[in-house]
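Internal tracking record. Fields below are filled automatically when a chain is submitted to the structure queue. Please do not edit lines marked as system-generated. If the sequence contains nonstandard residues, flag them in the REMARKS field before resubmitting.
Queue: standard
Priority: normal
Entity type: single polypeptide chain
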Amino acid sequence: MGRKTIQEIQSGYKTGSWTTLDITKYYLKRIKKKDHALNSYITVAKDRATGEAKRLEAKSSSGEQTGLLYGIPLSYKDNIDTKGIRTTYGSSIDANHIPDKNAAIVQRLLLQDSILLGKNNLHEYALGVTSNNPHYGPVHNPWNPEYTPGGSSGGSAAAVAADLTAASIGTDTGGSVRIPAASCGVVGLKPTYNKVPTEGVFYVSWTLDHVGPITANMTDLAVLFGAMTKQSYLPYLTQDIRGLRVGVPTSYFNEHIDPETYALYLQSLEALESLGAILIDTDVSFVEGNSEVSLTIAASEAGYVHKSRMECCLSQYGADARAFLESSRDITSLQYIEALKTKEMYMNMFDKLFRERIDVLATPTIPIPARKIGVDEVHFGDYTESVFDAMTRYTGLFNMVEVPALSIPCGLTSEGLPVGLQLVARKEREDLLIRAGYAYEQDQLKEFFRLRDQICAGYKSSN
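SYSTEM-GENERATED OUTPUT FOLLOWS
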């Protein structure tokens, strides 16, 4: 059958080309055949999915009105509660946890007649960026299984890239939707803070956490995000970007960056300009030091969330998750409050920037392509940085600022690894990101997507 967009799947239902059960079985067969090489799922809800598909077929046959996501199989990051389906949070401590209630976003999308395929592998408790999980095994990147898919929503992005789900729902505290989207060559959106409900998601940080979609293309993102927010974003796909003011940072986002990644970013700016966007040099020097601020907030709040588990089960955490949580013990209340005050300053500065000077800010999503599984450091000449710090350096800021941020592919390195372009807008202006992202995709990414779907449909295990 090959990859189909959400709209193509639903068009096939209308013409009788296939049924909801046919589509569900297509994904389940691909998961069974392919996921041993990727390890993108922790739990596959085969019986639940096929039962839902049959129920939806009967619903449609009876003439009942169907929802926006009728017959669309979705997967969910395994820190999002699903009623009656094991939800491990990527941990051994909660390995047997079976929620008695769906997370708010799961319930919302089920009411739109989507189908729940299963739960995706992730970095333990979403506390990292590689998805190298010590309890369920590492997730592998479908472009090259020796590499990580990014994280913490690595299983979701890998599954979307490899066509093991129509789309997936992830979470993002410091980049955990956008980092794996960039690493796997798919589209990921971190919405405006609180635009999508987080009830039923296991928190890292209630101040920074967002729920967002990961899709194969911008049209799927517009459809899925519309169902997630009960708004329509499809009309923005038809609007060009002539006159759109695109901010180009003159500092910070061009420092300590892989040369190929930076070159592809510059090419993406040229493409936006050729489409009619107006590039505007933008001073963002005020963001220096933001990573430390974000880390202070995230670690403080994660330490509180995990307090009881740390008291009883600290030894059951993987080494990196344990180290992150233990670091929270060294953060004082004064440091936490100062970090929140600085967060507020960043919000005010960006609000002013978007109101007075630009419509969209364009940056690289991450300064490096994916690294091999097990690699912990990255080198920029004489400068050495942890993979965690490098991968969150350009993304975590926008969780603090609470504005929407989109990652869309912008090319491949000489090693054949994807690179992401990050587009950022003012609060509640996801429409601008969808408009700009779609225009860029249609102009630049048709061949990229063809190559992605060819490679990621036929990857081989690294074992």
